[in-house]
Amino acid sequence: xxxxxxxxxxxxxxxxxxxxxxxxxxxxxxxxxxxxxxxxxxxxxxxxxxxxxxxxxxxxxxxxxxxxxxxxxxxxxxxxxxxxxxxxxxxxxxxxxxxxxxxxxxxxxxxxxxxxxxxxxxxxxxxxxxxxxxxxxxxxxxxxxxxxxxxxxxxxxxxxxxxxxxxxxxxxxxxxxxxxxxxxxxxxxxxxxxxxxxxxxxxxxxxxxxxxxxxxxxxxxxxxxxxxxxxxxxxxxxxxxxxxxxxxxxxxxxxxxxxxxxxxxxxxxxxxxxxxxxxxxxxxxxxxxxxxxxxxxxxxxxxxxxxxxxxxxxxxxxxxxxxxxxxxxxxxxxxxxxxxxxxxxxxxxxxxxxxxxxxxxxxxxxxxxxxxxxxxxxxxxxxxxxxxxxxxxxxxxxxx
Length: 400
Hints:
Blueprint: E1 93-94, H1 107-110, E2 128-129, E3 135-136, E4 148-150, E5 153-155, E6 157-158, E7 164-165, E8 167-168, E9 174-175, E10 177-178, E11 184-185, E12 187-188, E13 194-195, E14 197-198, E15 204-205, E16 217-218, E17 224-225, E18 227-229, E19 234-238, E20 248-249, E21 255-256, E22 258-259, E23 265-266, E24 268-269, E25 275-276, E26 278-279, E27 285-286, E28 288-289, E29 295-296, E30 308-309, E31 316-317, E32 319-320, E33 326-327, E34 329-330, E35 336-337, E36 339-340, E37 346-347, E38 349-350, E39 356-357, E40 359-360, E41 366-367, E42 369-371, E43 376-378
Region (Disordered): 74-140, 381-400
């Protein structure tokens, strides 16, 4: 997100067509505008009261996107199975793990000027203003800009459009201001949309609470937005302190999937590499969709399909193609597997006409569903297309 209400041209905003469950909650707007530029001028006349560096404590050691090559990132383990239909999430995750013994500073501390700060301000205008109407950050002897503060809360300067903007270190890296409680705070544009700090590799960085949990930027309507990687050209998940990737939420409370460069959703992961289903505003799980709006399955850490389940009774549901055809998930060996109903009985998938279909094993051979209630196998017709039970009384329901 840029200042003056614009979004980066390559920014893929929260999915606008993922699921009928969420379609009423999603906004189709996207605006592109160039990022404002700021010019700093000498501040010979500015008198600054220097305060102790205690205002910027080195509280914890966390990993930022700009130091990925030096410190192990938060990555689910690399596993030996084929998951080629989804982008790699290990490269699209920002994770910040507190460590008091690490030699690498936390995002909050490496981006903050620990040796310089400006004193509490009493005037309504904490910053000087240039001839263009832009408020200017003071700089220290090393050329690093730093924030003024009021009541312990650091204050953003405004450009001549009324947009808040970030101070920069001597290397031009932006960094977040902090609240009195130690939480990092996002700057806002003139429309009230929050904007992420962008690192020198064109990757947006998540701010964090004093405890190390990630904070999402929100638009003016309260919808959370993912940070965007200019390198990967996709939205990226943050990690919480437990190393779980975290979903953004709409103002309604519904979780939304991040989007890859291909336009496909992709799943967040737990610390062990298993993918996680997002939930709508009623708490019900729903599948991610590819760029053509076909649902696809999440996988566990070894490559088994995970079916979504009904919140009230645990019934599993098949993913659907855009035309309404259901399709089977599979295990790590390549066998298609049946979903189970609320009683634990396997049932057949159906096409958009309601015709039920056999599952196939890894060798391409069809096999029948099984009922644990009646301890019987349910077969389908010889043409291997429409599912037909030899005993209609035992026929499993295939309806969702």
